[in-house]
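Annotated sample (chain length 184).
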Amino acid sequence: MKLKQSLLLLVSISMVLLSSNSFAGRQGINLIYGIGLGAVSPADSDVAAAGSVFFGFIEDGWSLEGTAIKSTEAGTDIPLFDYSIKATDIGIAYRTVESNNSYYKFKISETDIDVTSINTATNADITTETEGRTYTLGMGWRMSRENRLEVDYSYHSSDDFSDPIHMINVSYLWGGAPYLGKDF
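Output written by the structure step:
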């Protein structure tokens, strides 16, 4: 890991551990995990379907999260070339206080992305590895006492690509602190 990724991980873990021992902590540290489906689109390319796996620790809205994403093959503006994407990210997120069983999510993460270009005529492939920061905005809904549905839009910028990579994901999450509001 690069220095900035190590520092992001250290700061994120420190914030979660400090908040678990604070007097303001109401829920304690909880495990949260889920799966998702979505779409990913680099510049000058068709949209590819993607699946994701999510894992994290949450406490009073703050969470340290890790996500793995893998897409199907999709076309590009260049004839005879397709692409696919694999990505992993780790970051810190904040979910606002729930109101009417919904909330907003803000996340900043360091992301490693492998973009594989596939020549459909020769079946040869070239993988471009890139690292960069991803910014995520999302909205979530409480589905039951301990289950949530989240819709996220992510914007990934990197020095290796001239244009950003856009991702939209719908995730179903389990775990976290049980909702203490109205009964379901």
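Annotation: Residues 81 and 119 are 5 Å apart (CA to CA).
Annotation: The longest helix spans residues 3-20.
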